[in-house]
TrEMBL record:
<comment type="similarity">
    <text>Belongs to the UPF0337 (CsbD) family.</text>
</comment>
<protein>
    <submittedName>
        <fullName>CsbD family protein</fullName>
    </submittedName>
</protein>
<dbReference type="InterPro" id="IPR036629">
    <property type="entry name" value="YjbJ_sf"/>
</dbReference>
<feature type="region of interest" description="Disordered">
    <location>
        <begin position="1"/>
        <end position="57"/>
    </location>
</feature>
<feature type="domain" description="CsbD-like">
    <location>
        <begin position="5"/>
        <end position="57"/>
    </location>
</feature>
<dbReference type="Pfam" id="PF05532">
    <property type="entry name" value="CsbD"/>
</dbReference>
<dbReference type="InterPro" id="IPR008462">
    <property type="entry name" value="CsbD"/>
</dbReference>
């Protein structure tokens, strides 16, 4: 996995966690769900990159 891809995925995960926390603090279920979705998307991208790496080696 490229370092840039890994950093981008981690940044997306952190943004998702922040959105989720803001949603909890403001009692905004939509923002909470958006944050969880961002985290899930980041985790899927990360898993895909790991699969690619496994086939390269």
């Amino acid at each position: 996995m490229g370092a840039a891809d890994k950093a981008k995925n981690k940044a997306e995960e952190l943004r998702g966690k922040a959105k989720e926390k803001v949603g909890k603090a403001t009692d905004d279920k939509g923002k909470q769900n958006e944050g969880k979705a961002d985290q899930a998307k980041s985790n899927l991208k990360d898993a895909g990159e790991k699969v690619k790496d496994a086939f390269r080696h």
